[in-house]
Amino acid sequence: MMLPKQGLRILVSGTASDSHTWNLVFLQLFLEEQGHPVTNLGPCVGADLLAAECLEHRPELVVLSSVNGHGYRDGLTAVTRLRREHTLDDMPVVIGGKLGVAGSRDPEAAQRLRSAGCR
Ligand code: B12
Asked: Ligand 1 centre and the CA of 109: distance in Å?
């Protein structure tokens, strides 16, 4: 894929219940190394704060990261809240890390996240 010269303006964020930070730092450094300017909101970001920051920064991509095992539940709440902001309809939201505690992929959970507005 050809990237725009300036890269994408990316907002990286932890999820509401997740206090882990190195995942966020790693993602920020990795994305910056690829040429993308990154705003990192840090850990424990609730859905309303995330929406407010997205309205202010207007990122071209939101990267949600969770590793504490509540990524599915927190992510669903976050993306559902973001999709209430119709001026952000074009803003892609992705989520990754560890979305549950089972240690295996859950295709149904992934599908529910996509249906709620993740890509
Ligand atoms: C360090 C650590 C902590 C530190 C965090 C310090 C800090 N400031 O961040 C402390 C001690 C505070 C901590 C606390 C807890 N932890 Co902890 N922690 C870890 C540990 C050992 C390392 C995590 C880390 O920093 N990794 C380094 C980063 C760079 O890698 P990463 O986190 O894996 O992130 C990468 C990938 O996940 C991926 N990724 C992440 N997000 C995204 C997003 C996208 C879109 C993509 C593509 C990729 C991606 O890319 C990242 C970079 O490579 C892991 C175990 C392990 N070895 O992974 C447990 C672990 C994550 N912790 C765990 C748990 C349960 C907790 C607690 C809930 C424990 C408790 N009962 O209190 C609390 C969290 C409380 C909360 N409210 O969130 C569990 C999670 C279980 C699960 N998901 O199934 C783990 C896996 C340990 C375990 N095996 O049980 N923890």
From this structure: 20
